Amino acid sequence: MKYVIEVENLTKSFGGRDVLQNVTLNIRRGESYVVIGGSGSGKSVLVKCILGLLKPESGIVKINGQNTSKLSQKAMFQTLLKCGVLYQGGALFDSLNVIDNISFGLIYGYGKSQKEAYGIALEKLNAVDLDEKVAKIFPAELSGGMKKRVALARAIATNPDIIFFDEPTTGLDPITTGIIDELIVKCTKEMGISALSITHDISSLRRISDIVGLLYNGSIIWEGKNEELDTTDNPYIRQFLAGSPVGPFTQ
Amino acid sequence: MDFLSKIGRMFIKFLSSIGSVTLFSVSSVSSGIVPPYYWKQIAKQSIQIGYFSLPVVGMTAIFTGMALTLQCYAGFSEFTAETAIPSVVMIAMTRELGPVLTALMVAGRLGASMTAEIGTMKVTEQIDALMTLSVNSYKYLVFPRLLVSIVLMPFLVFIYDIIGILGGYVVGVYYLDFNPTNYIHNTLSSMSNWDVVSGLIKGAVFGFIICLMGCYHGYRSNGGAEGVGRATTNSVVSSSILILLLDCILTFVLF
């Protein structure tokens, strides 16, 4: 199997407005694919459609070769066990402390014992450079950067094949952003995990991407390697990277 | 024509809401049929719904029982029918006030908190996170609440009945100078099992409604804090109206 994620002609509408129109993208094993695009361009919707959280109007989504639209709920949950997700705000469960958050998928998804799950959770806490002392703290007491690290620990706790990062560095200072980016690269490169990320942050984009796709008006209008970002003459990419208010995005 | 199309749109919206609530309740109930069962969640909800509701239910019961006895006395004494007061208080408590007032208090306390909690989880993507961690959110969040509400609401109604009747006894005996033995005798002699059981059945139905509305509006909330606030209001209003409507229907059916 060449690709871990295959998306073909995916279309999703809300209230008669096509948010995604015939989106096609493929992600190879161990590859880090980053989707960029303006606010409201449908990046989060794309990820939610791939994860089965939203039902697309048409198109095919395959995760590890399995067509997700044809899977039963039980089979979909089995497929999702091989996926980790880092949400924009962390999406940590408020009522659970850090260690319970990280071990949640291991206990309820994989059916591991609490003792075993806690052992793995502590290992993952160390992997994201957090001390074991934070294990009993509740999410409300964590800083933004710590929340993201805990959420990353939860995303990698089940040793997934694929991780989805939804704006992982939004709202963080440049240093914490750099640390989170480093952790993402560590996860994808050292652990061989494929990644689909969404970001607005150009410095993050350069650090974490292998392949970049630009989503505009519901379609991927440019796709290329990280190194091609600076050499392409695509006007949309040029405007996006320059952060210029003048260009095809705003015309 | 504009007026007619408005009515048509409202009717379609109404039907669509009924369909949406029905689908939600079917998904929630069916999710709990097969294992795994989340016992920790069930225990947590039992404490939240059963134990922590006792003070508010108890206070409502004792004050209503006292006030009802006084009101009955004011009316019945005009016809020298004071001896009927214990049985009237007992019937009013067990058949009507117990289930309805317990349900309205629980709807205000728990229905609102269920909506706020689930709504916040929805807008902060915690429900999406549950799904992507391979946990059925209906099974984890809704079913334990539904089960506990249906099982424990009759228990709360029963507690209300006892405390409410006791409140009537306190006012009757210590304020209106009723003979204590006669008061107890009049209460018990006119009490039938069905008076109590029918109230408990109402309680179970109301428990289902409160939880269903609380969770449904939580799942439907969007748009941040304002959306969660709106959903909470809708949850309390809709469950209160449904409680009163179903109380009327159940009273026709059960008596």
Task: Provide a descriptive summary of the structure in words.
The complex is a heterodimer of chains A (251) and B (255). Chain A has 251 residues and is α/β, with parallel strands linked by helices. Helices cover 35% and strands 25% of the residues of chain A. Chain A contains eight helices and ten strands. In chain A, the strands form two sheets. A six-stranded mixed sheet of chain A has the order 6-7-8-3-9-10. Chain A has a four-stranded antiparallel sheet with strand order 2-1-4-5, with helices on one face. Chain A is globular, with a radius of gyration of 18 Å. By secondary structure, chain B is mainly alpha-helical. Chain B has one domain. Chain B is built from nine helices and no strands. In chain B, α2 packs parallel to α6 and α8 packs antiparallel against α9. The longest helix of chain B has 39 residues. Classes of the chains: A alpha/beta (251), B mainly alpha (255). At the A-B interface, α2 and α3 of A face α5 of B.
Q: Tags for this entry?
A:
A: Rossmann fold, six-stranded mixed sheet, four-stranded antiparallel sheet, globular, B: mainly alpha, elongated
Helix percent band of chain A: 25-40%
The tally of helices of chain B reads 9
What is the ordering of alpha helices and beta strands of chain B?
Answer: HHHHHHHHH
Task: Quickly count the domains of chain A.
Answer: 1
**What would you call the quaternary organization?**
heterodimer
Spatial order of strands in the largest sheet of chain A: 6-7-8-3-9-10
What class would the helix/strand composition of chain A place it in?
alpha/beta
Query: What is the tally of beta strands of chain A?
Result: 10
Low-confidence stretches of chain A: none
- Count the strands of chain B? 0
Please write the string of helix (H) and strand (E) elements of chain A: EEEHEEHEHHHEHEHEEH
Second CATH tier, the architecture of chain A: 3-Layer(aba) Sandwich
> What's the mean pLDDT score of chain A?
90
Largest sheet of chain A: 6 strands, mixed
Arithmetic mean of pLDDT of chain B: 94
In percent, how much strand structure appears in the residues of chain B? under 5%
